[in-house]
Amino acid sequence: MEKADTIVSIRDLDKTYKNGFSALKRVSLDIRRGEILALLGPNGAGKTTMIGIVTGLLNATGGTVTVDGMDIVRDARKIRPRIGLVPQELYTDAFETVWATVSFSRGLFGKPANPAHIEKVLRDLSLWDKRNNKLLSLSGGMKRRVLIAKALSHEPAILFLDEPTAGVDVELRHDMWRMVRRLRENGVTIILTTHYIEEAEDMADRIAVINHGEIVLVEEKATLMRQLGKKELHVQLSMPLMFIPPELAEFQLSLADEGKTLVYTYDTRQEQGGSGGIALFLKRLGQSQIEFSDLKSKESSLEEIFVNLVKEPA
């Protein structure tokens, strides 16, 4: 049963290719209306396969996908105009102009001509000055902008961005994320895959991690950072230590910088609602007569959390 705020509901989705490779294994995921969901996973994890099924480019082996309560197979004609896709591949109609290809893309989805909307999209993506240029003449970064413009041409309610800024210039990445924020403000639901995890950390409301065709975790970004993040306290010592004293064995400690820095690693949950581990650790440090000159704290990034989630067991 879908929740009221769910726009895409994926249930027990399987995809096995003819060569026997199982790309998706009983994947279930609810995507909320109006959110930005970052779908993270290593290469070959199943991200693009899942997007391909939801957008109608691939057929599933098993399971169901509904969009606004409509089945993607049975109600494909109704659903497809609601979805936009920016694919990884840079395939474009080389001899068409920017204006023609973006306008034609809108018509493909049965939408009436709307030059004002096409102009707005091209201006937002800094493509207006190139509107009469043939795609053949554009740089890779400009072609990527055209793919984004095509995906937005028919005003979709759901936008899939599959590695949209991979290998493009910093200016496009900034343009892209500014536009993503505006789209979300206007109610568009956005699902993005990215190799730039700092972008997911900055943009996403929720994080889903997929590995070996299975959803490993789905969580609010803030909760994920809080629950799975680690913090480190770097204690700069007045005198170097050769080893960690036995009376500090209860803490997760390591020595760095040739014994000049004592690193205390602790779970963020230890510190919620009180002084927790740090206060006790500093008290024990004083009792051990270890003097220090400086304290610095460091939090896990989303990238570090992601690496730990998908790391193969040794």
From TrEMBL:
Segments forming domain ABC transporter: 8-237
One GO MF term attached to the UniProt entry: ATP hydrolysis activity
PROSITE patterns: ABC_TRANSPORTER_1 (PS00211), ABC_TRANSPORTER_2 (PS50893)
Gene3D superfamilies: P-loop containing nucleotide triphosphate hydrolases
InterPro entries reported in the protein's UniProt record: AAA+_ATPase, ABC_transporter-like_ATP-bd, ABC_transporter-like_CS, ABC_transporter_ATP-binding, P-loop_NTPase
Superkingdom of origin: Bacteria
Pfam family, one: ABC_tran
Keywords: ATP-binding, Cell membrane, Membrane, Nucleotide-binding, Transport
Name the UniProt record assigns to this protein: ABC transporter ATP-binding protein
Gene: yadG
